[in-house]
């Protein structure tokens, strides 16, 4: 079942590349904001407390690109990490489970659904700008908020 889930994820993401344009880093950042990743993972991806509980750090994550795509698409069972693909928990489900098998462990639905292209773009944004980057610094702050942002004053 897990292999089926991975094959299904790969097929959906491949169709995203074939069906539409590949979105760039600027779009990935905009999608990170649109999908309210900032609400839990914060602008810097460091995680911490949010309305959904304590979000994991995207800066410390060991997930690879495909795993990030799957988590954005399917959410995380048993947590408040929502699913962003409106079709992810259809009869096929995610992680080798259908909605009935997931039961109360099924993740919540995101307030904002994303297209397959947007899911790939936000996952690529996290991979390129947060994953493995250590503590956020002034350059990270300026890259997110802009040179004159008051949020960046506390960084040297």
Automatic annotation (TrEMBL):
Residues 23-130 form the Cytochrome c domain. It comes from Skermanella cutis. Keywords: Heme, Iron, Metal-binding, Plasmid, Signal. SUPFAM superfamilies: Cytochrome c (SSF46626). The keyword Cell division does not apply. InterPro entries: Cyt_c-like_dom (IPR009056), Cyt_c-like_dom_sf (IPR036909). This is Cytochrome c. It holds the Pfam family Cytochrome_CBB3. Residues 1-24 form the signal peptide.
């Amino acid at each position: 079942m897990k292999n089926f889930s991975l094959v299904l994820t790969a097929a959906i993401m491949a169709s995203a590349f074939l069906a539409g344009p590949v979105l760039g880093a600027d779009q990935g950042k905009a999608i990170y904001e649109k999908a309210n990743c900032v609400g839990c993972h914060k602008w810097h991806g460091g995680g911490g407390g949010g309305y959904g509980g304590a979000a994991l750090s995207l800066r410390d994550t060991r997930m690879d690109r495909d795993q990030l795509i799957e988590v954005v698409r399917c959410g995380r069972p048993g947590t408040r990490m929502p699913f962003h693909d409106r079709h992810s928990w259809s009869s096929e489900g995610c992680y080798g489970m259908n909605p009935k098998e997931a039961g109360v462990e099924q993740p919540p639905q995101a307030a904002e659904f994303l297209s397959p292209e947007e899911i790939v773009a936000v996952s690529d944004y996290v991979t390129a700008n947060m994953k493995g980057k250590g503590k956020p610094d002034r350059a990270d702050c300026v890259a997110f908020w802009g040179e004159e942002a008051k949020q960046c004053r506390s960084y040297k």
